[in-house]
Each structure stands twice: as C-alpha cells, then as structure tokens.
Amino acid sequence: MDRPAQARRTAGPGGTSRRTALRAGLGAALGAGVLPALSGAAHAAEQPAGQHPRAIGGTKIRNVTGPDETGQFAAPWTDLGIPALCPDGSMLHVGGDTFDGGGVGGPDWRAPVGLRSGSDLGSLVVNGSVGGAHAVGLVPESHEGGTTAIPSDVFTVGDTMYMHLMRGVIFQTHHSDFWRSTDNGETWEYLCQWPGDLLGGQFQQKSYAVADDGFCYVLSSVFNREVPSDLLLHRVPQDRLGEPAAYEPWGFADGAWAWGNPATTVTARRKWGEICFRALGGKYAFTWLNMEPLSMRAQVFASPTSDLTTTPEQTVIVPTTPGNEQGNAVASPYGGFIYPGSTFDDFHIAVSQWYDDQNYRVMQYRIDGLSQG
What is the value of pTM for the model shown? Predict the structure, then answer.
C-alpha cells in the first residue's frame, strides 16, 4: 500500500509558520492584558443558542513533559500528549511537534513522537520513548515546506493501536491518514487516507469512541481554529477501521435522523480547537477546546446519537495569563485529551500549554465536579 506523498503538501502563501498558525486564536483570545479566570456567568453571557456552560473546578497534578520530565529522551519541547492505553498495560503519550535544544523551533523537529509511562494516573512519569534514549518520529515526515503530522487521536481496540494524523502545513490540512500498531506503538503501518477537503473539510480532525457494540463512533471537524465548522458523527465497525468506505454518516433527512443519511452537524457550528470523544462508564464523554470564548469544555451523554444541542456544556479549563495560574485556570491552554483510566468521579485530561518558546508542554489536570447529566 502506498504511503502518503510528501511532495503534494506545500506551504501556504508566504510559508505560514507553525508559530503563527498554532498560536492564532490563543493570543488574540487572551489579549494584551491580564485576563482573569472566567466565571460561568461570564461564559453564559457570550453563548449562542441558549447554552449556559457550568463552570467547575480542577487541579494541576503535574507536568508530563518538559526539560526535566522528557529532556532525557531528546523531547524537552512537545505538546498534545494524546494518551492511549497500550495492549501491554502501559501508557503511550503521542506528542505533536517536538524539538530538542533550547526551545520551540530548536533542532531535531519530529512529529509525532511516542513517550511511555505506566498507566497509574497517580504516578504518570515518562520513563521511556519509542526510540529509546532518543524519541523518534513515529511515521515518515520530512517537514519539507513546513509540513507536519499532527495527531488528532490515538486509541486501542483489542491488541491493536490506531493513530489518526492531520498532514500538511498546520491548519492547511492536505489530507488526514490512519495508522495501526500491533507492538504497543513501537512501529506503525499505514492504512488509508482521506482528502482534506472531504465533507467541506469537516472530516479533517477526528476522534474515536470505542464502544462495546462492535463500532467506533467518530466525531469530526475542520482542523483550523479560525474557521467555523460543523461537528459530524460517523460510525465504523471496529474490524474495518482502515476502510474509508465503511464509515457511515449520521444525518437528518426526510424528517428523521438515521444512519446512512448525509452527514448533518450534531451541534451548533463553531470554531473548534482539539476534540476528544470517549466511551466512559457506560456513557460518552466529549471534551474540546472552545475558541469563542476561549475555554476547554466537556459534555457527558448517554448515546453517541444524543442531542448535543440540549446536552449541558461544562467548562473544565479557563484561560488566564502567565503568573496567574491556579486551580483550573491555565495560560494559553489547548488539547484536553481524556486519560484512559478516568472515571466521572476521577476525571483526568492532558492539557497543553504554549505561551513562549520555553513554556511549551503537556500537563495532567484532574477535573472536579463533572456532572453526568
């Protein structure tokens, strides 16, 4: 099977830099002055369609990455850290753009990378990497013309791990591609790809909930924080994950919602950051970076086809500025991936941060008071 062609991914006009693209939206949202942690009332005042997010608490547990935590694996500067439980019981944290040296933009640019730890949420210490003493890129990516390979999800079905990547200059997704590993993430086999303009670009960023009914349920959006996007839902049999034709849309047509109808947005269109969709505790949890207003949010619902327009939104992370972080207030937050092993009473997410070249990391946060409905 042919691997995705690097030559077709080119930089945009003027060669949009990673710094410019990734930080778009975050810096603008924070503004030039100090922005205090936003209250639930402040969020509610700006919400469309009658949504009134419930603000809840949280606590930083630790830095997962950084010079002290992952520098020994030539990965002092990395983000995202999407956590996946490996078949052997360990945890793989899949990072995005990763650098060695003195800060972001330093030497040895790799993406994605895999960092290893145990799976106990009370002691998530990175003690290895794919590549040993030097974390390697998990898949071929030349970064020619500014292209990169940003993970949107990593998850496990049985004894197989899967990874979804968004390829191209960041926020100019040429295509997304899909990989699998049968050796706990040490090596990855290319499976398939989807064009970046499929479904109006709203199939670029995907997150997979592994259900107990034999399906994975997939939420997707545009991967560009500055572009309003629908949120689409598909399902795919777990034994056909690498077959694009097996992805069946959920949509509204002829007066009814049904599988097989053309894909229809399942919630209000908005500007999405990172998304994470998981089956959890007999229900489903969805977390995302909300761009307007900037916050990290969660919804909990009974079924993949629940009405998200009426499901309460809960604010789990709020923005602040460097030096003013406390509780669940984070300077320049993004990511928000749910840790395997989380429960609704002990809910942990991987939160990324980037506000200068030496403050670029993944952190573990525990969210307190998450409502199940």
Answer: 0.89
